[in-house]
């Protein structure tokens, strides 16, 4: 049961009730629920499934995205290596000190 539902049924905060009054209230709510049942939000048999085609499409998109990220990472690494400055003259033409 939801806490706010119990608070409403008790006419205020449940914590303000004595233990005996709280126990009596909750046992009445349980009895009513067992007798009348509870109202469900909607049919429980509705299931959202991802079809095989959608699943394959998602897998392909994920593979493409992974490939792009890998290419981006490799490109940045190559850019860092290419722009490394060597020696005193700060030229990337020759890697000598």
Explain this structure to me?
This protein has 2 domains: 3-36, no CATH class; 52-97, no CATH class. The chain is 59% helix and 0% strand. It starts with a helix and ends in a 15-residue tail after the last helix. The chain is mostly helical and 97 residues long.
What would you say about this model in short?
With 97 residues, the chain is an all-alpha fold. The chain is 59% helix and 0% strand.
Summary keywords:
97 residues; 2 domains; 59% helix; elongated
SSE layout and pairing:
Layout: H1 3-10, H2 19-36, H3 52-82
What amount of the residues lies in strands?
under 5%
Largest sheet: number of strands, sense, barrel closure: none
Tell me, rounded to a whole number, the average pLDDT.
72
Which secondary-structure class do the elements indicate?
A: mainly alpha
Domain count:
2
Radius of gyration, in Å, reads 33 Å
- The general outline is elongated
Instruction: Identify the quaternary structure here.
Output: single chain
Distance between the termini: 75 Å
- Total helical segments: 3
């Amino acid at each position: 049961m939801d806490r706010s539902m119990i608070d409403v049924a008790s006419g205020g905060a449940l914590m303000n009730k004595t233990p005996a009054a709280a126990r009596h209230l909750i046992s009445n709510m349980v009895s009513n629920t067992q007798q009348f049942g509870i109202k469900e939000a909607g049919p429980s048999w509705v299931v959202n499934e991802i079809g095989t085609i959608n699943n394959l499409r998602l897998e392909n998109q994920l593979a493409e995205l992974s490939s792009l990220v890998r290419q981006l990472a490799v490109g940045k690494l190559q850019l860092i290596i290419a722009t490394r400055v060597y020696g005193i003259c700060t030229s990337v033409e020759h890697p000598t000190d």
